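Ticket opened by: R.M.
Priority: normal
Category: complex prediction / small molecule

The reporter submitted a protein together with adenosine-5'-diphosphate and asked that the result be attached to this ticket for the collaborator who will pick it up next week. Submitted input follows.
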Amino acid sequence: MPIIENLLINILFVLIPILFFQIFYINIDSKYKDIILAIVFSTSIVICMNFPITNFEGHLFDLRFIPFVLGALYGGKKVALFLYLVILAYRFYLGGVGVYIAFFDSTLLLIILLFLLIPKYQTYSLKTKIIGTMALLALIATISLIACHTMFGFILHAPSVLLSSFVVAQALTMGLSVYFLEYLITIDTMKKQLYHNEKLKSLSEMAASISHEVRNPLTVTRGFIQLLKEPIIDEEKKNTYINLSLQELDRAESIITDYLTFAKPHENIELESLNVTDEVNYVANVMQPYALMHKASITKEFLINESYILGNKKQLQQCLINLSKNAIEAMKNGGKLVFKVYKEDKKVIIKLSDTGIGMTSDQISRLGVPFFTNKENGTGLGTMVAFSIVKAMKGEIKVNSKINEGTTFTILIPESGE
Ligand code: ADP
Ligand code: MG
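Result attached by the on-call engineer:
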């Protein structure tokens, strides 16, 4: 009798559905989950019954109850009922006197599952789940052996070692399967938690960047107000300062709005045709007070007057402000910041060169990484935001820097029609 072979086949076909379980049940968020589970576990049941470990005069001994219990506990009552019907149908098809016992113990098992185990199973600890299912299968196997004996009497002719090892094999395979399944579910839960943490992380990064981005316009406005404090100031200048301050305050407001809609990143961002020289001009003016505070000067070199790109006005300004702010901050003892705009190969190029402290190649490679900062009060978000804005405009940024000589940021953005 190929007992061992068939036992191994049974165990194999009990374990295979567990792999399917991992692929379909855990990974795929499908409404057909139950159907898939029902099909996979009933296939396993049919195969187990096809290769019974032993066959005593029409009584089949196999591991069919393990996929039955697994399917019921992890798939729910509907799957349980379906698997029960599959077992009965296939058992009646195979025939033999054993059908009565099969009917009896399958029904007993179904009742225990439906009314005792399924409702509370998910609340049990791993240990209880394993011991509980092992005990259940050992119990059912023993009951069906006793039933065989009392109804037909001939089961005693089989060696008792064989009969008890059948009970033990059922229980062990059951415990192993539950352990395996629970292990896969734990891994999956951990994966989901990790993903969730990642989300939380970017949320907090966002919060940090809001305060960072709002600080820019506030600093600029502060500079203008300081300039307005001067005792003698002509009316025209005063108006310009006030207007620029108001614009900056509006910017602060819209930044907050922008970042709050960050949850839907690609919506609400309007692309428009922008004249690059206008925007660079605007930013160069806006940064004037901040440069003054740092004893730095700003120069503009526009080789073209009109050059259009597709982008978002506020974002482009934000990007240029972030980069020029860094440039000015890099010039602690004064220096020169040059904005240059020109065209090359259908690309509009904006160059920001400063005569500041410069960066090492290691620092350059870490630019754009969130929270990379060398400043006491830095957030390390400015360049990250600038980089992502340029990327959204399908452009690129190149950085050249020499320690103690200065840094040049070159932004290349594809030119668009007007
Ligand atoms: P933060 O300005 O808050 O430090 P950023 O992302 O704007 O954050 O910049 C990150 C770091 O990159 C800065 O701390 C600075 O060390 C370096 N850096 C950026 N731009 C320049 C520049 N033009 N010259 C020298 N160092 C710079
Ligand atoms: Mg910065």
